[in-house]
Amino acid sequence: DVSGALCISQAWPGMARTIYNDHKRFLKTYLTSYPGFFFTGDGAHRTSEGYYQLTGRLDDIISISGHRLGTAEVENVVNHHVAVAESAVIGYPHEIKGEGKMLSFLPQNVSWGNGTATLTAELQELISKKIAKYAAPDYVQVTQAGPTPTLA
């Protein structure tokens, strides 16, 4: 089991080779951080069996009262709760803090009903303990279904 930045060691057909009118930026963004590898910008976890799980964008940062916080960091804590199937954290403009956080999660058992208030409180406390008090979301939304992928 190992977690880290998802990088690709070999080129593939259709891979970007530059950024229009800014080749230096392309090199700096994708090829400098991990020499010899293409940095995708995503974090990943590889299990001992060799399966990969994308953990989120490494550059998706929210600035809350001067604290920089990765959305994937919060989602990772929330997803370890036994009652959570999936989660997403987004930032929104906040008059005092600069940015605030909203957590949306899909429970393992979608018929949680009256237990969602208790689960919401447990998640906020878990985030406060594992990361910091300022990392607890301002708003928590329980969803009944995740996004449905479609083919175009």
From TrEMBL:
GO terms for molecular function: acetate-CoA ligase activity. It holds the Pfam family AMP-binding_C. One of its GO terms (cellular component) is mitochondrion. Residues 73-145 form the AMP-binding enzyme C-terminal domain. GO terms for biological process: acetyl-CoA biosynthetic process. PANTHER family: ACETYL-COENZYME A SYNTHETASE. This is ACS2L synthetase.
